[in-house]
Amino acid sequence: MLTAAIDRYLELRRALGYKLERDEQMLRSFARFAAPRADSHLTSHTALEWAACAATPRQCDRRTRAVIGLARFLHAEDPRHEIPPRVHACAAQTRPLPHIFSSEEIGRLVQAAAQLPPHRSLRPLTFSTLFGLLAVTGLRVSEALHLRLDDLRPDAIVIRETKFHKSRMVLLHPSTSAALTRYVERRQRVASNYDHLFISLKRTPLCYETVWRTFREVCSSAGVQHSVRVRLHDLRHSMAVHALEACPHGREQVTPHMLALSTYLGHATVRGTYWYLQSSPQLMHDVADAAETWMRRAQP
């Protein structure tokens, strides 16, 4: 019973753009766990018993959330399927606190990348262009590394088949377009027979591990070291937070701004964009001020 239901559930969710690779693994595990019990419908007892078998509280929470999604889907078809409650003993999944790069730090980062050895090779220009592109566009690292030459437009880049199986056009500032043009002109003199935009000294596509190690090296050279471990993905966080800080005031203006930013970043839902609010003290202060103003007006 569960195997066929899981197939239908995954097919529907994937039609909406979700990959659900980890969820599928967990739900298949749940189906194997529940099979010997021969339940005619999904029960909370079986679901929570399976979730409790996880090795860590965090994995328990992931299992619970995965099976709740399936249960809601089945409950809509047949109310006899039970929707398990969230188990308080399971630790909620938390996101690591990002480091928000200042404009000055990003400038130092790009300059340090431009000084990488070998000095007369393509490597310094490759990484200064890559890190600069990540900082000003908020691209996911995987999206940037999968870019090909034919994805470039005079004032934009095309991001194909991204995290949620979506493609989108990312508009570029003229200075960003000019930097990409300079890089491509130099790159074509070195490796014109390869179509990946960012390549290594061996003329192969850059891999994440190489980019990560170089990023750590450049952060150290640029003096961007903090108590919290700086991550490549923090460049994306930084772009989103700075864009939100520039958001115009007024409810009628905020909503279109958030929707536009959500689309630009390639989020599946706008909820993923609102999460960035908590990464900036300025934004949280603005939210608190707005809430206090609203409450004062609401008082008789």
UniProtKB/TrEMBL annotation:
Q: Which UniProt keywords apply?
A: DNA integration, DNA recombination, DNA-binding
Gene3D superfamilies per the UniProt record, alphabetical:
Intergrase catalytic core
Which GO terms label this protein's molecular function in UniProt?
A: DNA binding
> Which residues does UniProt assign to the signal peptide?
none
- Organism superkingdom: Bacteria
Membrane-spanning intervals of the chain? none
- Report the record's Gene Ontology biological process terms: DNA integration; DNA recombination
Query: Where do the Tyr recombinase domain residues begin and end?
Result: 96-289
Concerning InterPro entries, the annotation shows: DNA_brk_join_enz (IPR011010), Integrase-like_cat_sf (IPR013762), Integrase_catalytic (IPR002104), Tyrosine_recombinase_XerCD (IPR050090)
Q: Which family does it belong to?
A: Belongs to the 'phage' integrase family.
- What name has this protein been given in UniProt? Tyrosine-type recombinase/integrase
Taxonomic classification: Bacteria, Pseudomonadati, Pseudomonadota, Betaproteobacteria, Burkholderiales
